[in-house]
């Protein structure tokens, strides 16, 4: 806790002081983020750092496994993710949605563990069910891969399946139909700092190049 408090003081003295005009605008005019960034709660994955952004650039949702539960017509079955998607698209009018998985993801590894191991933490066990379709896809298409290879493949395939789930939301469908919203699949390799994007044309993830700016 001391480290966090000391960090707050450094933020106020250094970063905020150097960017007080930015924070003044954000306080007076509200937020106008360019994108909704959905990623994992993993402490090593920081969307603002990865994109070298500023406060106000991203509307961020982080959860274990970067899952996007499919749309439900029953609001009582909705989740915080669903509410965030609707808010970002309908009210903030973001132009892009990014679903970003990452290497060495604990949630992807947990998918393959006996669910009885989560008896003492039932919310974790229930949340992991959102990865069941991902496991089925990996089992069907990569039956001969090693456990280590399967873990990374699962993380990549999971991003693509969450993209499919995103497209079940009426607000996403409508905004995409009007051409004002685009959905992207990214994958962050922690050890190298490389960010990959999925190319539908090539049907594979490839590094994001500087010339794509």
Structure in words:
This protein is of the alpha/beta class. The chain has 2 domains: 1-30, no CATH class; 36-212, Beta-carbonic Anhydrase, Chain A (3-Layer(aba) Sandwich), CATH 3.40.1050.10. The protein has helices at residues 2-18, 20-29, 47-51, 80-91, 106-110, 122-127, 132-141, 147-166, 170-177, and strands at residues 35-40, 58-63, 96-102, 182-189, 194-199, 204-207. It has a 6-stranded mixed sheet with strand order 2-1-3-4-5-6. Helix 3 (47-51) links the parallel strand 1 and strand 2. The protein is globular and about 55 Å long.
Question: Which structural category do the helix and sheet elements fall into?
Answer: alpha/beta
| Gross CATH architecture of the largest domain | 3-Layer(aba) Sandwich
| Helix and strand element order | HHEHEHEHHHHHEEE
CATH topology of the largest domain: Beta-carbonic Anhydrase, Chain A
Q: Please summarize the sheet with the most strands.
A: 6 strands, mixed
Percentage of β-strand residues: 15-25%
What's the alpha carbon Rg, rounded to whole Å?
19 Å
Strand order of the largest sheet: 2-1-3-4-5-6
